[in-house]
Amino acid sequence: MAVADTTTVVVDDEMIDPVTGEIIDQKELAERLLAQAKEQGVSLTGPGGLLSQLTKNVLETALNAELTEHLGHEHGGTPIGENMRNGTRVKTVLTEIGPVEIEVPRDRDGSFEPVIVPKRKRRLDGIDQIVLSLSARGLTTGEIAAHFDEVYGAKVSKDTISRITEKVAGELAEWSSRPLDALYPVIFVDAIVVKVRDGQVRNTPFYVVMGVTVNGERDILGIWAGDGQEGARFWLQVFTELKNRGVEDVLIAVCDGLKGLPEAINTTWEQTVVQQCIVHLIRNSFRYAGRQHRDAIVRSLKPVYTAPSEQAAKDRFEEFAAEWGGRYPAIVQLWKNSWAEFVPFLEYDVEIRRVICTTNAIESINARYRRAVRARGHFPNEAAALKCLYLVTRSLDPTGGGRARWVMRWKPALNAFAITFAGRFEKTTHE
Fold first, then answer.
1. By the 8 A CB rule, do 133 and 395 touch?
2. What function is annotated for this protein (predicted)?
3. What pLDDT is recorded for position 404?
4. Partner residues linked to 191 by β-bridges
5. How far is the CA of 15 from the CAs of 11, 22, 33, 52, in angstroms?
6. Is position 176 within any domain?
7. Is residue 172 assigned to a domain?
8. Is residue 177 part of a domain?
């Protein structure tokens, strides 16, 4: 099929015909091309399809425009110097719609360096993003290669896919040392268990520190590999690193009673309140409960952690213990053992409680991590596992920063934090 000439000029998002100077109706143009393709029996996708030919035309037009700018004269014009056009060479590039064969223009002295399709590059940047996105979902290099073969009809080697994903190693190092905000109203410390083959397959915890910024965004501050035996020294290194990256103060740190963690937090930031994570407390309660009773247990516990005061919470907990203590005494004991770390939660305004106890914000990122980890099964080493977790983090935010909204109604929470932590809040955010 001979595709109609699509050479146009774009001005203020309008396509202008360079010959007539008229605005081209893009919908009308698309309909005309589709009708032409249908008449000639050309498919929309696939090798030789309409999209493939349009992509070929666009790329070749862009390459010729680049060469014109490089040489300083139009095709057929008078050369400014000795350098001039010198034919074309055929090159196949991998695009989001599959492999496309294009003719790349050349110059006589070989000084032309294309930007849109660089020399020695046989795939467009969009392909790299597809590979990274699939990798973030836990697909192996073999599975990604099979995906490209099945969906795009393109052969992409495992080595090529590995090279693409290895590019994020430098990005990961930069991300792990990037400057952080001076104040985080809340940080959460959580663990993701990953199977790592180090001689033998072992369960390795990777600790994720998530922060809520003063703008109400979820910010993944960092990811650290452990061995399950972490204590105060390990956590002090983690929090000292965060402090050295700019974190001057944390108002509330939410964690799950990890050994040595509260002491390390208060050594780093003396005034930080260490709070037992309500999400983890509820989740840990499920370990001892039958699946058929979980919904009922959550309903019975909700009056406890939504109580207006500590005394009211104690009264509601006694009612919970009377209802469920006979069947599940371990759950009652779990809450009693965690009561001292749970109590600070009851002193906060309901808006602050909502931020601390927003299960969706915490569980959404955890679900993505676990999905990717389960898809892979196990990793050859800690570096490979860390790369996968970073790719998941990277996918949260189109800018690659790993930030996303925490709660929609952030302003009421912001006001509650400013009043509850008056002085500390203004000092850090206004400097």
1. yes
2. Required for the transposition of the insertion element.
3. 62
4. 207
5. 7, 8, 16, 21
6. no
7. no
8. no
> What are 302's two structure tokens?
């909700």
Alpha-carbon span 135 to 389, nearest angstrom: 10
Cross-strand bridge partners of residue 92: 101
Is the same domain home to 190 and 139?
no
My answer on whether 160 and 217 are in the same domain is no
Torsional class of 79: left (φ above 0), alpha (ψ -120 to 50), beta (otherwise): beta
User: 18 and 29 in contact (C-beta within 8 Å)?
Assistant: no
3-state DSSP call for residue 395? helix
> Which pLDDT belongs to residue 315?
94
C-alpha–C-alpha distance, residues 69 and 160, integer Å:
32
3-class secondary structure, 197: strand
pLDDT at 13: 45
| 145, part of any domain | yes
My answer on whether 271 and 153 are in the same domain is no
Beta strands in 199-281 (DSSP E): 200-212, 217-225, 249-255, 273-276
Domain enclosing residue 228, as ranges: 183-430
| Residue 308 in tokens | 């207006």
User: What pLDDT sits at residue 249?
Assistant: 93
SS3 (DSSP) at 95: strand
CA distance 419 to 411: 12
